[in-house]
Structure formats: structure tokens, C-alpha cells
Specification:
about 140 residues, 4-stranded parallel β-sheet, 7 helices, about 50% helix, globular, DUF488 domain-containing protein, DUF488-N3a
Amino acid sequence: MTTTNLLEDTYVAALQHNLVDVPTEATLVGVVRRPTSWFRTTVDENYPALGPPADLLNEFKQRHEDFKMQGLCDEGAHNAAWDDVEFEKRYQSYLTEVVDAREAVSELTSRLRDEERLVLVCFENTNQKRCHRTLLKAHLNAQL
């Protein structure tokens, strides 16, 4: 098995409502900055340093609300705000430039190299919306 086959991702509601099949040996790794109590009880561990930085998240949320006020549906507002704040570029920079994020990436990469099966978990359903965890998954795979 290649290390990239050891890394999956999903969202917390999918786990809570049994909408996804997760291998029993997989470690559920939260990647949110401010986990709720019900999030913490669903995952095995959480890496707050891998959540989007507060300034990016706050700017994104504000733009999301602005776009909704302009009449866009939630999904459209989400994706428009993502592009408007250059979320992907800024999150990638965060992962490579901020020490805590780099250390967390290094730790997860090492665990994958040791053939630990990991499932990245956050709040966002990515069927219609873009999410940082898919960027993180690609970033981890690129490190391998």
C-alpha cells in the first residue's frame, strides 16, 4: 500500500450520521482551529494548527456573508468568498511559512510514512463547497 492510500478526508457530520465508511484502524484527525465539544468527541485527536489561520477564516466568513447579502445562495457565496480572499493561496502559504503548521504537517507526514492510516476531519461538506482539508490532504500527499 502506498502512503497516499493511507490518507482520506471527510466531514464530522458524515461520521456522526454514518454516511461514510472509515476503516476501523484509521485515526480520525481533526484539523479545526476551534473544535466544539461534539467535534472533539467524534475525532480521536485534533490539530488546531492545521485549521485555517484566524485572520483568513474571519475574512472568508465576512465575505461569505457579504455575498449572501448580495443574493448568492450559501454554496455560491461560499465559493465566491473562497476565490475573493484567495483562500487556497493563503492557506498553502500558511502551511509552509508558520512554524506550528509546518510542525503539524511534518508530524502527520511522518505518521503516514510509518503507515498509519489517517482520516482528516473538519466541519465542511465538500460535495458543493471547497474546504481547507482537501488542500491539506493534497499538501500532505505532496510531502510524501
